Amino acid sequence: MGAPRPTRRLLILSGAATLAAPSLARAQGRYPDRPIQLVVPWPAGGSADVQLRSIGDIASRTLGQPVVIQNRPGAGGTLGPMQVAQQSRPDGYTLTQMHLSVLRRPWMMRTPQWDPIADFTHIIGMTGWLFGCAVKADSPFQTWQQMIAYARANPGKLNYTTSGIGTTNHLAMETIQEKENVQLTHVPFRGSNEAVTAVLGGQVEMVCDSSTWAPFVENGQMRCLSVWTAERVPRFPNVPTLKELGYDLTVTSPYGVSGPKGMDEGVVRVLHDVMKTALMSPENTEVRSRFDMPLVYQDTQTYRAFIAERVEYEKAMVRRLNLSLDS
């Protein structure tokens, strides 16, 4: 006996679905069909800027549309992400670098201006920074211990710079000062490249930031006093880690890419896949190696879980150190 013939109702429904599919495809269009903007919340030229420009260039070749980097520095690297969360449509055409300061800064405000979980669609975890402290080559400090001894004898006299109040490197320096019972003067800049320029120009004595200082250490213009990785950095084998100096600290500050809340999960998958391919490419691997940036890849679900867990950690850290932007 042959299979039963479909009823007229089923035929009508089947035909309706067939007609609806092309209409839906036309309504949604092909993604992407225009340039994608990736907001980097630091000035051009820093390690994250260079790494994400490389990601954008490589991704553009697969997507068939340019990924345009827009630098929006300010507010410790949180101005750009905040604007993306509050002002951008969740259509996949405006993205931002997501880093730990974006997770931390709301809890430093009396009235938080964004929710780092609810106000974003987190897409992919990528890499982190090599952090360290460096001084100008003619600085009297030959070692980290000499710097700490001077700071202990001269409270508030020694100044250092980071890429902003409430950034991961700023909090690490606050933790170090708390442990050593010393007082340094913090001079924040908008990004690590501006901080390094200030040290080279003699306006600030020490930079404690991501590895924009590394080429200047290599060419002899600066001296690195510490690195904040778990182990010594091959490029700087004589520079001690914070753990070797007696601090239970490893600071790499992993970051990724996110968009506004409410993004279509199909678009998220496209972006994740193309950015993962770019991240793993020899071209981007070379860029990360140039800045000693570790690979910290996390897929979408893993990255979202990391963000949720890390937000709780950052809230506790802000309370413990009594950090506030309102005081």
Automatic annotation (TrEMBL):
<feature type="signal peptide">
    <location>
        <begin position="1"/>
        <end position="27"/>
    </location>
</feature>
<dbReference type="InterPro" id="IPR005064">
    <property type="entry name" value="BUG"/>
</dbReference>
<dbReference type="Pfam" id="PF03401">
    <property type="entry name" value="TctC"/>
</dbReference>
<dbReference type="InterPro" id="IPR042100">
    <property type="entry name" value="Bug_dom1"/>
</dbReference>
<comment type="similarity">
    <text>Belongs to the UPF0065 (bug) family.</text>
</comment>
<keyword id="KW-0732">Signal</keyword>
<protein>
    <submittedName>
        <fullName>Tripartite tricarboxylate transporter substrate binding protein</fullName>
    </submittedName>
</protein>
